[in-house]
Automatic annotation (TrEMBL):
<feature type="domain" description="Exostosin GT47">
    <location>
        <begin position="41"/>
        <end position="385"/>
    </location>
</feature>
<keyword id="KW-0333">Golgi apparatus</keyword>
<dbReference type="InterPro" id="IPR004263">
    <property type="entry name" value="Exostosin"/>
</dbReference>
<keyword id="KW-0328">Glycosyltransferase</keyword>
<keyword id="KW-0812">Transmembrane</keyword>
<dbReference type="GO" id="GO:0016757">
    <property type="term" value="F:glycosyltransferase activity"/>
</dbReference>
<dbReference type="InterPro" id="IPR040911">
    <property type="entry name" value="Exostosin_GT47"/>
</dbReference>
<protein>
    <recommendedName>
        <fullName>Exostosin GT47 domain-containing protein</fullName>
    </recommendedName>
</protein>
<keyword id="KW-0735">Signal-anchor</keyword>
<dbReference type="GO" id="GO:0000139">
    <property type="term" value="C:Golgi membrane"/>
</dbReference>
<comment type="similarity">
    <text>Belongs to the glycosyltransferase 47 family.</text>
</comment>
<keyword id="KW-0808">Transferase</keyword>
<feature type="signal peptide">
    <location>
        <begin position="1"/>
        <end position="26"/>
    </location>
</feature>
<dbReference type="Pfam" id="PF03016">
    <property type="entry name" value="Exostosin_GT47"/>
</dbReference>
<keyword id="KW-0732">Signal</keyword>
Length: 456
C-alpha cells in the first residue's frame, strides 16, 4: 500500500474528471437541444442520473485499500484508460478492464442524445461504480455482508426523486458492472457467504439492465459487452494505420496461447494446450501431419501470462498475437477472457473451446450466426478426454480459408474496441464497442417497456 504516492495522482484525475465532464456534458447537451432535437434522437434519449459522489468518485479514493486485490490507483489515469504505454503513444494505454465503469461514464458524457429531463428519457444511466464498490465485499472488511451490496443505492433511488424509478419500476435503468456477472450472483441463502456479492440476486435490482463482461447462463438483468483492450485510438487515421499493420503482419507462428494456468497435472483444457504446445516441435517434424504453411517457422508458442504479468503490459502479448495465425482462447476461472478481444484486435483468429466463451455472450458486438466465418470451435471435451489434437485441426484449415477468416475478423476490429473519449468526428462515425452497447441497451429497454405497458 502506498497511499502517499497515489494521492496526488488521484487528485489530478479528479480535477480532470470534473472539469472535462461538466464541459463536455454541457456541450453535448447544447448539441442535443439544437441539432438532434427530434429525428436523430427519437427513441434514443438518455438521462444520466445524478448520484452522490459516494457512489462513484469517492470510491476511487480507496484505490490502494485492497492489498489482496491490487493497488488500482495507477489504472485510474485518463478516465480509466490508464497511463499511456509510452509518452509518445497516441492509442496505446495500460488499461485495466475493471476500470470500464469510469471509461463508460466518461464516454456517455459525449453521447449526443442526453437529456436533463428524466421524463423525456428512453433510458436512465446510473453512474454507479458497482464493481469498484464490490471490492469491500469481495476483498475487504465487509466480506460477511455481501448481500448488502447495492442496497444503499436502492435506498437513495427511492428517496431522491422517487418518481424517476417508479415511472417504469426501474425497467428503464442501466449500469455497468466491470466484472463477470458471476461475481454478483451469490445466492442470498448462502450463509456464511461464498464468493461474490448478491447484487444481481436482490429483488430490488431485478428490473435493471446490467452490462457485464460475462453474462450468466440464464441471464435476466445482465448482457455481456467486450472487455476493453489497450487500444484506444483518438482518430480514424490512427485506427486505419493499425488495421493496415494488422493486415500486413507477417505471421510466422501458427498457434499462440497467451495466458497462465495448466501447469498442474489435473486434466483440463489449459493443461492439454501446454502439453501439445511443448510437444509441437516433434509434431512439426512428423511428415504424416503435413507441413507448415509457407513462411511459418513455429507451430506453437506460449506467452506466459501467469501472476498477471501481461495485464498492464500489452506489448508482451500484442506483438506475438500480430505474428500468429490462431490464438487459443480456453476458459480459465470463468469462460470469457479479455484476450479474446486482444486477439481480434491483432487479427489473430480465435479458437474457442466453449460456446460460453463468446458465442452466447456478445451478440451485440459479434454476429452470433457468423462465428464459423471468423473463428474456430473445438469442443474442450474432445481435446481433454478424447485425445483430439488442436494442432491437427488447425493445420487442416486451408490457407485460403485462413485469409478469408482474417479479413472477416479485421472488419470487426472497430466494433470491439473502445475509442478514446474526445476522439475526432471521423472516428465517431464508426460504431465502437461503447456505441453498440448503448444501442443494444436502448433496444432491450425499449422492448421491456413495451411489454410492461402492454400488461398495465
Ligand atoms: C474507504 O475504506 C475505508 C476503510 O475500509 C472505509 O471506512 C471508507 O468508508 C471507504 N471509503 C469509501 C468512499 O468507500
Ligand atoms: C514521460 O513524460 C513525463 C512528463 O512529461 C516525464 O516525467 C516522464 O519521465 C516521461 N517518461 C518517459 C518514459 O519518458
Ligand atoms: C466472516 O465470517 C467468518 C465465518 O463466520 C469469520 O471467520 C470471519 O472472521 C468473518 N470475517 C470478517 C471480516 O468479519
Ligand atoms: C419490478 O417490476 C415489476 C413489474 O414488472 C414490479 O412489480 C416490481 O415492483 C419492480 N421492482 C422494483 C424493485 O421496482
Ligand atoms: C506429448 O508427447 C508425449 C511423449 O511423446 C506423449 O505421450 C503425449 O501423448 C503427447 N501429448 C500431446 C498432447 O501431444
Ligand atoms: C525437429 O526438427 C528440427 C530441425 O529440423 C530439429 O532441430 C529438432 O530437434 C527436431 N525436433 C524433434 C523433436 O525431433
Amino acid at each position: 500500500m502506498t497511499p502517499c504516492k497515489s494521492i496526488p495522482r488521484l487528485t489530478f484525475t479528479f480535477f480532470l474528471f470534473f472539469s472535462l465532464s461538466s464541459a463536455t456534458a454541457a456541450a453535448a447537451h447544447l448539441q442535443s437541444e439544437s441539432e438532434n432535437s427530434n429525428s436523430e434522437c427519437k427513441g434514443r434519449w438518455i438521462h444520466i442520473r445524478k448520484l452522490p459522489s459516494r457512489f462513484n468518485l469517492d470510491l476511487l479514493t480507496n484505490c490502494s485499500a485492497y492489498p489482496i486485490y491490487d493497488d488500482f490507483c495507477p489504472y485510474l489515469a485518463n478516465h480509466g484508460l490508464g497511463h499511456k504505454t509510452h509518452n509518445r503513444s497516441h492509442s496505446w494505454y495500460r488499461t485495466d478492464p475493471s476500470m470500464l465503469e469510469l471509461l463508460f461514464h466518461r464516454r456517455i458524457l459525449e453521447y449526443p442524445c442526453l437529456t436533463p429531463d428524466p421524463s423525456l428519457a428512453n433510458a436512465i444511466f446510473l453512474p454507479y461504480y458497482a464493481g469498484i464498490d464490490s471490492l469491500r465485499y469481495l476483498y475487504g472488511p465487509e466480506v460477511n455482508s455481501s448481500a448488502e451490496h447495492g442496497l444503499s443505492l436502492y435506498r437513495f433511488l427511492q428517496q431522491d426523486n422517487p418518481q424517476i424509478w417508479s415511472r417504469y419500476s426501474g425497467h428503464d435503468h442501466f449500469l455497468v458492472l466491470a466484472r463477470p456477472a458471476w461475481d454478483f450472483s451469490q445466492r442470498l441463502s448462502n450463509d456464511p457467504p461464498l464468493w461474490g456479492t448478491s447484487f444481481l440476486e436482490l429483488r430490488e435490482f431485478y428490473n435493471i439492465t446490467a452490462l457485464t463482461y460475462e453474462s450468466r447462463a440464464w441471464p435476466w438483468q445482465d448482457h455481456a459487452i467486450p472487455y476493453p483492450t489497450s487500444f484506444h485510438p483518438p482518430t480514424l487515421a490512427l485506427l486505419r494505420l493499425w488495421i493496415t499493420r494488422v493486415r500486413r503482419a507477417r505471421r510466422n507462428t501458427l498457434i499462440l496461447f497467451a495466458g497462465g494456468g495448466g501447469v498442474s497435472a489435473a486434466p483440463n483444457i489449459r493443461h492439454s494446450i501446454r502439453s501439445e504446445c511443448d510437444n509441437s516441435s516433434a509434431i512439426s517434424n512428423d511428415t504424416t501431419t503435413g507441413t507448415l504453411i509457407s513462411g511459418q517457422s513455429k507451430v506453437c508458442e506460449i506467452v506466459d501470462c501467469s501472476s498477471g504479468v501481461c495485464e498492464h503490459d500489452p506489448i508482451r502479448f500484442m506483438r506475438p498475437m500480430l505474428q500468429s495465425t490462431f490464438c487459443l482462447q480456453p476458459p480459465g476461472d470463468t469462460p470469457t477472457r479479455r484476450s479474446t478481444f486482444d486477439g481480434i484486435l491483432a487479427g489473430c483468429i480465435p479458437v474457442f473451446f466453449e460456446e460460453l466463451s463468446a458465442k452466447s455472450q456478445y451478440g451485440w458486438h459479434l454476429p452470433e450466426d457468423q462465428y464459423e466465418q471468423f473463428s474456430v470451435f473445438i469442443p474442450k471435451e474432445e481435446v481433454v478426454s478424447k485425445g483430439l489434437r488442436i494442432i491437427h485441426v488447425l493445420k487442416a484449415i486451408p490457407a485460403v480459408e485462413i485469409r478469408r477468416m482474417r479479413e472477416k475478423l479485421i472488419e470487426m476490429i472497430p466494433r470491439i474496441m473502445y475509442r478514446r473519449h474526445g476522439s475526432s468526428l471521423g472516428l465517431k462515425a464508426e460504431k465502437d464497442a461503447f456505441d453498440l452497447a448503448v444501442e443494444g441497451t436502448l433496444t432491450r429497454i425499449g422492448s421491456r417497456i413495451e411489454e410492461l405497458l402492454a400488461v398495465r
